[in-house]
Design brief:
Blueprint lengths: L3 H7 L6 H11 L4 H8 L3 H15 L4 H12 L10
Helix pairs in contact: 2-4, 2-5, 3-4
Length: 83
């Protein structure tokens, strides 16, 4: 059985591991500049990865990409962690 990350990298979306990592950092609220610093790459490279991720996911921006990623992990909705 594939892990969730394997589903996103080798499954229907075909994200690279770097693209998936950048998506995870976007989900954490990191800026493009913070992502570039953390991964030791240029902002231009971050932008190229993000463009590829958005195209593969069929979304227009980081918010939509994170929402799609979140919904794939919680298909029945947000877990009720406050009760």
């Amino acid at each position: 059985m594939k892990t969730e990350d394997e589903e996103w990298t080798s499954g229907a979306y075909g994200l690279t591991l770097r693209g998936l990592k950048i998506l995870e950092l976007i989900a954490e609220g990191k800026t493009r500049e913070e992502i570039a610093d953390r991964l030791n790459i240029s902002i231009h490279t971050v932008d190229r990865h993000l463009t590829s991720v958005y195209q593969k996911l069929g979304v227009k921006n980081g918010s939509q990409a994170v929402a799609k990623w979140f919904r794939s992990r919680f298909p029945s909705g947000m877990p009720n962690v406050f009760c």
